[in-house]
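Let us work through a complete example step by step.
Step 1: write down the sequence.
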Amino acid sequence: MNYFNLTEIPEDDVPMEQFLRIVQRYSFSYTHSQNKNILEIGSGPGIGANLLSKNAKSYKGIDADKNLVEIALKNNPQINFETISDKDFFLKNHKKFDLIIIYETIYYIEDLKNLFLKIYDTLSSNGLVIICTANKNLLDFNPSIKTYVYPDILDIKILSNDKFNILSYYGGVALNKVSFRQKILRPLKFLASKLNLIPKDMKGKKFLKRLFFGNHFTKMPKNIEYNENSLKKMKKLDINNKDTKHKVLYFVLEKKN
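Step 2: predict the structure and record it as tokens.
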């Protein structure tokens, strides 16, 4: 499966907001990684792997796109990355992991019920899952191509069922904190989304990002560094209500024994 044109890679120009989102999510998982055996599903170009491996007992990154895995291996030759099949996914390896992270990848997986069963079988006793996804409940939400379900808290509750406890639920990138430019353009984005006018390819997306974010861009690094301040911008949410005030949602689940 080719996801190369759907994600940013090192040396790409990316909006500062997007870069800070990536820093936030890997900094968040870093705080849960101490002495853990970690599996990252959808590790892409591996920009968070070096940070996590410093703190963990072990780290393994898997991705369905061999080109992204090649970039990850080139930039982090000391780290274990593997190309996996979309169908077989990751259960060929019978090793148990203490922490499984899925960042901005879960919506590319068609059968989430089956995914959660596989995760349950792959986790060690009381193992954790951290999921980060775009918030589908926003007015101007626009799904990417090749995606299926963008789970919110209601979906996560159903998927967790009797196999996982939901330990925490956070929002990242509050809408009331975005730039004035974005606030003004959000209604236009909503209209464009409804009329199916938003480009799906990376070239079109880059143009759209220039429109929304202006000149606030930076180069994507090969490796992310821990940033404690980024965690202060996460807001703990009410587990009984879906959120409409944040661009990003985080879920921390614990395996039931």
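Step 3: interpret the result. Residues 97 and 189 are 40 Å apart (CA to CA).
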